[in-house]
Amino acid sequence: MSKVSYYTAEGLKKLRDELDYLKSVMRPKASQDIGEARDKGDLSENAEYDAAKEAQGMLEMRIAKLEEVHSNARLIDETHLDVTKVLVLSNVKIKNQANGMEMKYTLVAESEADLKTGKISVTSPIGRGLLGKKVGEVAEITVPNGVLKFEILEVSRD
Q1: Nearest Cα residue to 111 out of 16, 27, 1
Q2: Mapping DSSP to helix (H, G, I), strand (E, B) and coil, where does residue 35 land?
């Protein structure tokens, strides 16, 4: 059973662009590499040919996986999201009650998560723990090191 993934417009465009690149640039290159290796002689002893065929197989697996993800991708309609609680695409400012540190995150789909840019997945432990919370509530989140308590300071949308 395929899993439905939710994407922002930006995330869906990146997925389509990668898929187009793999199909239009990398697939012809893989075929060309196989042809060049085939021209070098006996296929039974040609490691370059074997490597090119294996690379093509890996590429085709990646294309198939991306096509499956793309076929199950759904664009998130931000106009129907509740802005009073933490949901996907929420910008949330939280305060760690243990050390008083404040952090800002944007909750996104798993495929768009990037901690360096402050985007965390809604399927991560912290993301799951924040979902549905409102300003002023405290989220108790179980992580491998124990339980973290975060107070929700702000919830907004861009």
Answers
A1: 16
A2: helix
Give CA angle at 7 (6, 13), nearest 5°. Answer: 145
pTM tops 0.85: no
Strand order in the sheet with 91-96: 119-121, 102-108, 91-96, 146-156, 138-143
Give the separation between CA 8 and CA 15, rounded to whole angstroms.
11
**pLDDT at residue 80 above 70?**
no
Structure tokens at 91: 């910008």
**Could you report how far apart the first and last alpha carbons of the chain are, in Å?**
34
CA distances in angstroms from 70 to 41, 62, 77, 121, listed in the order given: 40, 12, 17, 18
